[in-house]
Amino acid sequence: MKDVKKDKLITKWIDPQFTHSLYKVELPSRRRNWMDLDNGHAYRCLPLSVANGFGWDILNPIKFEAIWNGDPGIKDAILFNFYPQNKEEEDFIKDNSIGSHFGNGIITWSALNFVLKTTSGHNIFIKAPTNHFKHGARSLEAIIESDWLPYPFTLNWKITKKHVTIKFEKDEPIACFFPIPRYYLESFDTDTITGETESKFNKEMSIWASKRGELTYNEFYSRGLEDSENKKVFEDHQRAIRGCPFLNKIKENNDGRET
Question: Which residue ranges in the chain fall short of pLDDT 50?
């Protein structure tokens, strides 16, 4: 794996009135229950496996179920059943930390007691847990300007099917996040061309296409075989992309950044 210089920072700044957070932030597992089926054949798809481990996951703090009656309003539209395992989780429920705050069948986790702070010029992309699925509900996604915002965001899931019990287990991923440079998307121009039949790229594409139904296709990509004829491997090929774990140790710093 290439040794990458760590010259940027994401800080999990915890509200000083709390000693800790029920919300865990962890590196994602590259395993998925549905990918374990069929002798784990899905893991042969390297792009899928790499994406599984990308970013950081925020885990659900308490087991609960939710049923939406289809009413677009806020009050009494979603029936919640919580299953606390200790007093701390009972207090968490009393604070209305998970509930219907926006209506339209949206579940909101509103009591995140930490703020994510990034190096200047970087946003945070908050998205659904990668390659996790839940029947009848879908995570909403957002981009936060995390280098200046002094306030925690909320996490939200939209229930898409009424009268269906949506289950959330304790410590299951409810969101994934990663940093993106501001203006990164805008820095790309776009182009569309028609390839030449005799070009080297088209010939290479034809070789890969012929391997599509064979086991060698995945071997080609797994090895990063840029030039199949000459067995040339792409030197910057990545078989995994992993961030740094957030440590439990808390540093005191009033400006929200580590020293």
Answer: 256-259
